[in-house]
Every structure is written in C-alpha cells, then in structure tokens.
Design a protein that fits this description.
Number of helices: 3
Largest sheet: 2 strands, antiparallel
Helix content: 40-55%
Strand content: 5-15%
Distance between the termini: 12 Å
Length: 108
C-alpha cells in the first residue's frame, strides 16, 4: 500500500510530492518502543498500511528490542522491575507473533 503523501519543498526541485512516514511515532524504532511501553497496541489493521519493506523494518526492530531487553537483567530482589521487564517482553513477543502471522497470511 502506498504511504501518505505530503507537499515538500527542496532547493533543487522546488515543491514536490513526497511520502510521509507510515510508522506511528515516525520510525520503526519509535513504534517498537511504544509497543514495548504499552502505549501502542498492535492489531491486524495496524499492518495494513505497511508494505513489505516497512514490515521488514518493523520485524528487524522488534527482534533488536527483544534482544536488548533479554540482555538487561533486573536485580532479583526488585520485583517491580522484574514484572516491568516481563510485561515488555510479553508485549514484544506478541507483536512478533502477530507480525509473522500477518506476513504468512499475506505472503509478504
């Protein structure tokens, strides 16, 4: 699907139509961060605006954030930090499964 367009100005070409970011928050990294924090809930409709390249970027950032979170260890006596880490991991793992299911369904 084609991204939203906006009128932009550049010194070389003057005014031209460009594409706007399709990710909520402006980038795949920001979208993944919002998913991990619980500010953004992913559904199948969330993926409809993305093309194959955008889904690749999102999948890469989800995997990267998961590796980063798994590498961080909370102190064993800090239960609230452990719960927060586990909630973030669960949100991201769910987003990974939803992304993979959507890609299998659409064959992208």
């Amino acid at each position: 699907m084609v991204a939203a367009t906006a009128l932009a100005w550049s010194p070389r070409r003057g005014y031209h139509v460009g594409t706007m970011a399709t990710f909520p928050g402006g980038s795949a990294w920001a979208m993944v961060r919002d998913v991990a924090e619980g500010y953004l809930l992913l559904t199948e409709r969330s993926f409809r605006q993305f093309d194959r390249a955008d889904l690749d970027k999102l999948q890469f950032e989800l995997d990267r954030k998961l590796r980063e979170l798994r590498g961080e260890q909370a102190p064993l006596d800090d239960l609230s930090a452990i719960q927060l880490r586990n909630r973030r991991l669960q949100r991201l793992q769910t987003a990974v499964m939803m992304t993979q299911a959507y890609r299998m369904k659409r064959k992208t």
